[in-house]
Amino acid sequence: MNLQSEQFDLESTEDVQEFYHSRGWTDGFPVVPPTPESIQACLDWVHMTPDELIGIEPVRERSITAEKLAINAVMAGCLPMHFPVVVAAWMALLKEEFLLHGTTASTGGCAIFMVINGPVRKEIGCQSEFNVLGSSDRATSVIGRAIRLGLINLLDVSPGAIDRSTLGHPGKISYCVAEDEEGTEWQSLAEIRGLPNDVSAVTVFAASSPRQIMNEWTKDPKEILDTYAAEMKANMLSYSIWAGNYAIVVPKQHRDLLQQAGWSKTDVANYLFEKARIQRKEWAAVGKASVVRDKGDTEYCALASPDHLLVVAAGGPAGGFGAIIPPWLGTKSQAVTLAIGACVDCEV
Amino acid sequence: MALTVLNPTIELQAENFELAPRLSTLDGKTVGFISNGKEGTDGFFKHLDNLLREKFKVADIIWETKSNYSAPAEDDIIERAQAWDLAVTGLGD
Asked: What are phi and psi for residue A51, nearest 5 degrees?
C-alpha cells in the first residue's frame, strides 16, 4: 500500500468521531473510519493508484486525487462498489462548464443534484421508487453524501468558509437519485444526453431545492405538464428569471399517462419550453416592481432550449406528485453527464 | 480497539503570496474597479469613483465588469489591470 495521506492512530471509533468532528472534517453526522484497508479497497475496485489525478478545480487550482476521494467516500459510508460513481461525479464536477467554485461558494445555496443511469444502478442497489428524493436507499444516500464531504474536505466548502450560502437546503446533505429505467418506456436521461443506452452514467446539476407539485385530476398530458410549467414559472417569479437547466422528476402515475398518450421526453421538453414563460412585468405582483424597469413586455423562458430540461423518471408507483428542480442561477453552471468507469486515456 | 485512519483533506500548505506594495498616495494614480456586475455594485462604485476623484485626487478611474459574477475575471481584464496603480475588486453582492 502506498497511500500518501497523513495517518492517525486512534483508540476507538468514538475517538474517530470526535477527532474528525473537532477538525471540521464532517457534515455533522457520524463518519465511517477511513482506514488504509478500506481506502485501498475502493482504489482496487476502480483500478486506480492513490495519486491518480481525477481533475483540477480550475479556480483554486486544487488537484483532486483518487486517494482523497476514496477517504471521503468511505467516511460517507460508501462501499467499494459505490466508488466508481463518486469518481465519475467528481470528474463531471471538475468540468469547466460546471463552475464548481461559483456553485459551491454562492450565497444562492444550491446543492449538487445527481442522477445515476445504466446497469450500475441495480448492481449497487439503487432504489428509484418510494421516497426517491429522500433517503430512498443506501447507495444514493452515501454517494450523495460522499460528494458533500469531498467538497468540505478537499475544497474547504464549509459553511462560512468557501460556502457562503445564505440558507442552503437539505439537498446539501445528499441529493442523488437513480432513474427508474425499468418503470418507463422513455429513453434514460443519459441516453437523451448523448450516451449509449447500455452505459452507466452520472449527471451532475447545480440545483436549488425540489418544488413539489400535485395533479391527480386529469389524464390530459398538457394539463399534467401545465402544473409543472406553473411551478417553473413560480420559480422564475419568486427566485430567478434566468433560463437554465431545470430538472423535472416525473412519477410513474404521470409517466404512464404521458406515455399512453404517446408523449416522449422530447415532447415533454418541447411543451414545457413553450409553456414555462413569463413576462418581466409579472415581477411587479411578487414584490419585484423596482427591477421591471422598461423591460416589462420582455418575455423570458425557463429554458434556453428544450434540451436544457432534464426529465427524470423516478418516484413511487402511486401518486400524482412530481417535482421541478430549478437551477442555481441561469446558465452560469451547466449540467454535465459522464459515463461511469470510462477510461479517458484508453482508445475505444 | 486501536484504529489507523487517514486525513481526508488536501494536505498541501497553501503557498504564501505577497501583497502588492502599498501606495503612499492616491494623488495622480490610476485606479481600476473590477465589478462583479451585480445590481448593488453600481451605486457603490459610483460613490467610490466620486470619493477617489474629489477627495483623493486620483488621475483616472477605469471601470471593468466581469461577464460572469461567479467566475474569475477574464484574462483580458487582468491584462489591462497591469497598467493600473491600484485595483478595487472582490466587492458587491
From this structure: -90, 10
Number of domains forming the structure of chain B: 1
Q: Is residue B62 part of a domain?
A: yes
Contact A101, A153 (CB under 8 A): no
Segments of chain A with pLDDT less than 70: 1, 342-348
Residues of A near B (Cβ–Cβ under 8 Å) read 3, 5-13, 15-16, 19-20, 25, 33-36, 39, 59, 62-63, 68, 71-72, 75, 99, 101-103, 105-107, 149, 153-154, 291, 329, 332-333
Q: Which ipTM value was assigned to this complex? A: 0.94
Distance CA A334, CA A244 (A): 8
- Chain A: closest CA distance from residue B10 (Å): 5
Distance CA A128, CA A147 (A): 19
Question: What is the enclosing helix (H) or strand (E) of A246?
Answer: strand A246-250
Q: What tens digit of pLDDT does each residue of A287-338 get?
A: 999 999 999 999 999 999 999 999 999 999 999 999 999 999 988 999 999 9
Q: Is residue B52 part of a domain?
A: yes
pTM: 0.93
Q: What is the pLDDT of residue A346?
A: 55
The greatest distance separating any two alpha carbons of chain A, rounded to the nearest whole angstrom, comes to: 67
Residue B40 lies in a domain: yes
